[in-house]
User: What shape does this take?
Amino acid sequence: MSKSSNRKTGWRNGIVLAAGLAIVGGSAAWLLGSQSAAAADIVVYKDPSCGCCRQWVDYMRDAGYSVEARNTRNLPAIKEEHGVPNRARSCHTAIVGGYFIEGHVPAADVRRLLTERPDIRGLSAPGMPMGSPGMEVPGQAPQPYQVLAIANDGKATVFASH
Assistant: This one.
């Protein structure tokens, strides 16, 4: 092979390598972006004796989140501080990425929230819907429920249906 042929091949290989690195780099950035939503730090305020809250904390950890559980007997004050309307309240309140997550909201909805970053206060699964994460009971059918997006003015719209 001539020097000229080697230079052309080397040049082409360099372009292919650079393009491959750009694609891989872009994919890595996308993966890291989606990972950052999954690996976000969550602080969960819960009653120390609540088993379903513990189950939700474990569920979120299993989904890849870093979760700090803070036991408190003064949940109404936490909910008030973070603007959770009375009609949207549930058993525990979590804070992640500047949003509140009220109750048994699925990890996929939290991930979507952190990816889309809508201009809202947070998400709520009002009450304690049977079959929602942390509220599974063997032999009992899950009930359909909605996760609500709570706007800055306190109005609720459906974020997801389960």
Q: What stands out?
A: The radius of gyration is 22 Å. The chain has a mean pLDDT of 83. The helical segments are 3-38, 51-62, 75-81, 107-116.
